Amino acid sequence: MSPLKIEHGASSHSVYALRDPHSEVIEKHTLAVLVENEPGVLARVIGLFSGRGYNIESLTVAEVDHTGHRSRITIVTTGTPAVIEQIKAQLGRIVPVHQVNDLTVEGPSVERELALLKVVAEGEKRVEALRLADIFRAKVVDSTLSSFVFELTGTPEKIDAFADLMRPLGLNELARTGVAALKRGDT
Q1: pTM across the whole model
Q2: Which of 23, 40, 70, 162 could form a disulfide with 65 if both were Cys (CB 3.0 to 4.6 A apart)?
Q3: Structural domains of the chain, count
């Protein structure tokens, strides 16, 4: 992109309005990265993001092939299309990385997340929290006379919506696993 030139007497509108609107579109992408399961690999992947100022919205990692000693890192990140392409290219150059898939552009995928939510409530708020948990199919995994811990699995948006409804009812603590994702179909 060529530098912007501002001439004296130009309109008082923001210079950002002069840029190509498509070049600044921020997109969310889910990347599945297959790596060697060895010490330091996760640190190298995270270092790539932090060293270049890229944001990680969600990060999950687990061994997926015990005999082949491979782990899968699922990263949800945001950026312009050019930044996303740069991230994928740089991930592919890290030596213990075997494969980088952008599930967002490779076709339909399934994304799920697990959350635990502690709600401290009494009286009507307690009843309402249970009613909403039933609607969202959240399970009660711990209960005391003044609190519940709910377990909820679903899309990040579903978990956000449930948490938003629980806040005024006494949401006290929230733990989330981050996104786990797989490409749909037989490929």
Answers
A1: 0.79
A2: 70
A3: 2
